[in-house]
C-alpha cells in the first residue's frame, strides 16, 4: 500500500516564526511532490511543487526534498495568521498508474 | 477565466435517494478528477478521465457510484441509492498534464 504520512497537528506557531511541515512517503520511485493549502471549508490549492533533491524557494515558502530519506517538507518563513490552514502533501506515484497519493494533512495555526 | 464549477454546493437528501453531482472543468484542461474528502480518510480519488475517457475508476466505492463525462466540458458523479456513509465533500478537479490540479469549490453531501 503506497502511503503518504503527515503529522495531523495542530501545529501552533507565533506570528513571525518559521513553521515546518513534514511529510514522508513509501513509494521510493516517486518523482513529483506537491504541497497544497486548504482553508477551512474551501478547496485545496497548489502552493509548491518540487521534483529534484534539495530546496526550492518561492517567496516565504521553501520546499525541501530528500529522496534517499523519502522525506519532503515545507517551511513557511515569517508566518502570518493568514497562513492558518491545513497543508496537504501529495506524491505522484511511479509506474504506469500515475496517481496522486495524498496525506491527511497537517493543521497549522499561526497565533497573532 | 472561470475555474472549475461544481453544483450543487450543498445537498441534503434521505437514504435511498439518487444524488447527482455536476462538474464543469476549466476550458482546455484534458484531465478531470472526482475526489471525496472526509476527516477520517482525507482526499480519496474516485475516478479520473483523460480526454473524456475513464482511465482509472478503482477508487469508486461500489456499484452505487457511477461517473460520466459525455464531453470535454461536463461530468457527473451519481450515487444511487445513497447511504449515510456517503456523506462527505465531493471535489471535482481538472488539469493539463496531471500535475497541478485545479479544484472546484466542492459539493457537500449529507445523507440522512
The percent range for strand residues of chain A is: over 45%
**Largest interface, chains and sizes:** A-B, 18 and 15 residues
Computed Rg of chain B: 13 Å
Q: What is the H/E order of chain A?
A: EEEEEEEEEEE
What level of helicity do the residues of chain B show?
A: under 10%
General form of chain A: globular
Oligomer type: heterodimer
- Secondary-structure element series of chain B: EEEEEEEEEEE
Overall geometry of chain B comes to globular
- Provide the residue-averaged pLDDT of chain A: 93
Please outline the major beta sheet of chain B: 7 strands, mixed
Roughly how many Å is the radius of gyration of chain A?
A: 14 Å
Distance between the termini of chain A: 40 Å
Q: Which structural category fits the helices and strands of chain B? A: mainly beta
User: What separation lies between the terminal Cα atoms of chain B?
Assistant: 37 Å
Keyword list:
heterodimer, A: 112 residues, mainly beta, six-stranded mixed β-sheet, 11 strands, B: mainly beta
Helix and strand arrangement:
The complex is a heterodimer of chains A (112) and B (112).
Chain A lengths: L3 E3 L4 E4 L4 E7 L6 E7 L6 E6 L3 E5 L2 E6 L4 E6 L8 E8 L7 E3 L3 E6 L1
Parallel strand pairs in A: 2-11
Antiparallel strand pairs in A: 1-3, 3-8, 4-5, 4-9, 6-7, 7-8, 9-10, 9-11
Chain B lengths: L4 E3 L2 E4 L5 E6 L6 E8 L3 E9 L2 E4 L8 E7 L2 E6 L8 E8 L6 E2 L3 E5 L1
Parallel strand pairs in B: 2-11
Antiparallel strand pairs in B: 1-3, 3-8, 4-5, 4-9, 5-6, 7-8, 9-10, 9-11
